């Protein structure tokens, strides 16, 4: 609640809504979300249908250009993205300047911004071909530099995009192929990652998307706006939740793997501990994305046959919480981060790369929202405030203070 007595010098009527929880800041045709009913749709299409029947690049095209592409248009789009997957060699010098221990999201944000220096022509959003080229360039180069942040942290040589393979297969190759031999790609894994990227592709006006729109509203370029989105996503309150799931599983493992003990802890109102990956701020009955990805997680785990105590704990935790009255009565189901964390772990993706995975998925949403904001000719984002500082004071010279 606002303490009215502390408010001073308020000029005109101002809506006070910290975190914009109840403010619609734009009109948007892109994503529909109903948290009570557990509905998520991109451009009117149910997320269930898109995850089941479309590919990530198909969904990217839908989000950005508004319609599902024909088979021919999709093939052209994939080819055009391929054309831009070469990243300027001098970008490698920038990567070399980072310590190996740098967080990949910091490196990704810096590299995305640096793309402006090597691609200085700004994207004219009103010109169809200019816009299309900018979109393909961003999607092509972002994947490569995202994986380079991992290669750098491991001290591995940087890999290049393989034009004979699809976008998600390339992700696996770029990440894991070594000079000793190419990475063996498992189609079940590719399918699960494709779905995960689709599920993360847009979520209306979340923190990083609002950031992209806000930065873009000053007519800063596309790469600069996306770079700001990466920084916003980096925060633990936003993209970092799946990392928190893994950290919790590690904590349970270190404490002997007693899942019931941690369920009790989560129910204890005196204890601040919460089960990470359970519950959602917007989806109050179930997270539609979690339902889809749970199936993929089960398939990945049985196909890879990974033996990992953390994954065993995750499965036990899921079962125990789903059967527990406390969690059932509060509709606290595993959310998308719970299962995405499990899949990434099973694929051998290190925990601090989880948010980078999220960023790769969210990229088409950021681009679509940036484009919509510019085409709608939205004004520069400039919120007001409620001033709570001192009233007018007399200036006192330094020697008299
Ligand atoms: N573990 C134990 N109890 C929980 C949990 C949990 N994970 N989540 C909510 N509760 C309890 C609350 O204590 C509260 O209990 P009460 O009615 O007895 O007071 C009740 O469920 C309702 O919870 P709220 O706090 O009102 O739910 P809110 O909408 O504020 O929080 C949130 C949602 C932040 C996601 C919460 O469920 C949580 O902290 N989850 C764990 C963290 C997590 O997984 N975050 C990722 C979300 S997905 C994403 O951001 C992409």
TrEMBL record:
Active site: 280, 337
SUPFAM superfamilies given in the database record: Citrate synthase
Catalytic activity, reaction form: oxaloacetate + acetyl-CoA + H2O = citrate + CoA + H(+)
Pfam families reported in the protein's UniProt record: Citrate_synt
Pathway recorded for this protein: Carbohydrate metabolism; tricarboxylic acid cycle; isocitrate from oxaloacetate: step 1/2
Keywords: Acyltransferase, Transferase, Tricarboxylic acid cycle
Any one Gene Ontology BP term: tricarboxylic acid cycle
Descriptive protein name: Citrate synthase
């Amino acid at each position: 609640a606002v303490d009215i007595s502390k408010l001073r010098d308020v000029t005109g009527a101002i809506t006070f809504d910290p975190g914009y929880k109840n403010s619609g800041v734009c009109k948007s045709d892109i994503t529909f979300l109903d948290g009570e009913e557990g509905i998520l749709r991109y451009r009117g299409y149910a997320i269930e249908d898109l995850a089941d029947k479309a590919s990530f690049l198909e969904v990217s095209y839908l989000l950005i250009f508004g319609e599902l592409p024909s088979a021919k248009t999709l093939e052209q789009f994939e080819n055009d993205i391929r054309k831009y997957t070469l990243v300027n060699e001098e970008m490698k010098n920038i990567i070399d300047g980072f310590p190996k221990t740098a967080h990949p999201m910091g490196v990704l944000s810096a590299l995305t911004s640096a793309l402006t220096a090597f691609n200085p022509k700004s994207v004219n959003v009103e010109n169809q071909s200019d816009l299309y080229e900018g979109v393909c360039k961003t999607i092509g180069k972002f994947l490569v530099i995202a994986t380079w942040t991992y290669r750098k942290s491991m001290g591995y040589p940087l890999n290049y995009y393989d034009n004979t393979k699809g976008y998600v297969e390339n992700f696996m190759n770029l990440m894991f192929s070594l000079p000793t031999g190419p990475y063996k790609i498992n189609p079940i894994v590719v399918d699960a990652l494709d779905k995960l990227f689709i599920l993360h592709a847009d979520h209306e006006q979340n923190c990083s998307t609002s950031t992209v729109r806000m930065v873009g509203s000053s007519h800063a370029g596309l790469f600069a706006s996306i770079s700001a989105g990466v920084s916003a996503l980096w925060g633990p309150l936003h993209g970092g939740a799946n990392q928190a799931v893994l950290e919790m599983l590690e904590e349970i493992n270190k404490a002997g793997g007693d899942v019931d003990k941690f369920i009790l802890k989560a129910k204890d109102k005196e204890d601040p501990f919460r089960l990470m990956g359970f519950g959602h701020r917007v989806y109050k009955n179930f997270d539609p994305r979690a339902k889809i990805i749970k199936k993929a997680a089960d398939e990945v785990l049985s196909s890879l046959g990974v033996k990992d105590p953390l994954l065993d704990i995750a499965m036990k935790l899921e079962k125990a919480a789903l059967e527990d009255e406390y969690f059932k009565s509060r509709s606290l189901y595993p959310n998308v981060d719970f299962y995405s964390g499990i899949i990434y772990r099973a694929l051998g993706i290190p925990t601090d790369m989880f948010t980078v995975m999220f960023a790769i998925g969210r990229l088409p949403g950021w681009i679509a929202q940036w484009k919509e904001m510019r085409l709608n000719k939205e004004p520069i984002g400039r919120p007001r405030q409620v001033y709570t500082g001192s009233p007018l004071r007399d200036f006192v010279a330094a020697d008299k203070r």
